[in-house]
């Protein structure tokens, strides 16, 4: 049995702030019976995975295995916007493919990150093969354990090619008065968490300038997608239905590590 450290970077909502925190830093057993799967079960911060995702040096294509609990699928608009974000940052000459499918509920909500990892064990079917690198994204039908009335987690990057989106939470937020569209919240969460897989900020992709925040893992440039807390301009979450973008310093980091 291999022990893998689950270091997560989470996109959270708190009043009018949307941000991210690395509040799960535990050891968790993940069993690797097949050596071919080990490359997809590495702790965040490993420097090789961001380069492999960004460049075409080792992998010329990317496949996203997007698994949703039935009834909690992401909007088509968010999936397309997410793919556009990836195409703008990655060199994958053989293309980026998003495979979507649904599964039954685990019935375990609210979730610990260890439970999310166990669900991945049961549901993930695609792993790196040949020139194709894969990422697993799970849309959960509930919230993350530890959420409160004042702060909730929207998503977490918890292994080098693994992300969970707490779709149940996103839908509750989107239903509130003056909230952005669900597609906007989904897109912001997907882009933010995947950018952590790309090594931002300073978690596998080296800094080209001093723009990491004091607590680490996030950008200190106001209004950047990778801020630990993003304050929107109006309403509950902010900028209407405009998704925050990476700032120039984050983009410079990715470009220096093989990306666009």
Summarize this entry quickly.
The chain has 260 residues and is an alpha/beta fold.
Strands of the largest sheet, in order across it?
Answer: 6-5-7-9-8-2-3-10
Write out the CATH superfamily name: Collagenase (Catalytic Domain)
Query: Which structural class is indicated by helix and strand composition?
Result: alpha/beta
Uncertain segments: 1-5, 13-33, 231-239
Distance between the termini: 38 Å
CATH architecture descriptor: 3-Layer(aba) Sandwich
**Annotated CATH topology:** Collagenase (Catalytic Domain)
**Percentage of residues in DSSP E strands:** 25-35%
Structural write-up:
The longest helix is centred in the C-terminal third of the chain and has 16 residues, at 182-197. Helix 2 runs parallel beside helix 5 (182-197). With 260 residues, this protein is of the alpha/beta class. The protein has an eight-stranded mixed β-sheet, with helices on both faces. It has a single domain, classed as Collagenase (Catalytic Domain). The protein starts with a strand and ends with a helix. It has helices spanning 48-54, 76-89, 113-123, 167-174, 182-197, 248-256; strands at residues 2-7, 9-14, 17-21, 25-30, 61-69, 96-103, 132-140, 151-159, 162-166, 229-231. This is Membrane metalloprotease. It comes from Aquimarina algicola.
Any key phrases for this structure?
disordered N terminus, two-stranded antiparallel sheet, single chain, 25% helix, alpha/beta, 260 residues, Collagenase (Catalytic Domain), Membrane metalloprotease, 6 helices
